[in-house]
Amino acid sequence: MGGGPGTGRRAEAAPAGGRLASILMRVPFNRVATPAVTDSADAVLAALAASLGTAGLAAAAARPGLLAEVDQHAAAVRDSLDGDARPLTRAALAGYVEGVRSAAREHGWRAPQGPTDWSEPDWLLTRLLAVCALAESLPARPPAAPPR
Fold first, then answer.
1. DSSP 8-class letter at 120
2. 39: three-class secondary structure by DSSP
3. Maximum Cα–Cα distance for the chain, whole Å?
4. Tell me: the pLDDT tens digits for 59-110?
5. What distances in angstroms separate CA 115 from CA 25, 101, 102, one per listed residue?
6. Higher confidence at residue 115 or residue 128?
7. Residues 2-31: what's their mean pLDDT?
8. Among 34, 9, 40, 38, which residue's Cα sits nearest to residue 24?
9. Residue 6: left if φ>0, alpha if ψ -120 to 50, beta else—which one?
10. pTM value?
11. R_g over Cα of the chain
12. Pfam families of this UniProt entry (predicted)?
């Protein structure tokens, strides 16, 4: 495991072609999502959807090969977050996104400027798109109760 004891991180081997490896993040079982955490998670996922998700998921719907790649990445993300043992949350997905992007930046990655070419996306963009797909599959968050 990388990242030191108790960090819940482990490095994943990079796919062929020298693409960037991801950092798989595990959220501890004792974490409770407070309203501030939930709002922050929603902001992270909304920004990701606006920058990549909307166009990427539309491209995946039109390209069966891309859709299959996104599905494979989504399964890997779900597995890394113990999604089969407990329900995925928006907070867990947002934490995963932040961890992956942070590791990518440490390796020199920069977010694409302008429209993304979804005909041959790199490993990282496909992984982030998979998180968008998972976030879309979660139930909608109920509206906040009005202040008393």
1. S
2. helix
3. 56
4. 999 999 999 999 999 999 999 998 778 889 999 999 999 999 999 999 999 8
5. 28, 18, 22
6. 128
7. 43
8. 9
9. left
10. 0.71
11. 16
12. DUF6401 (PF19939)
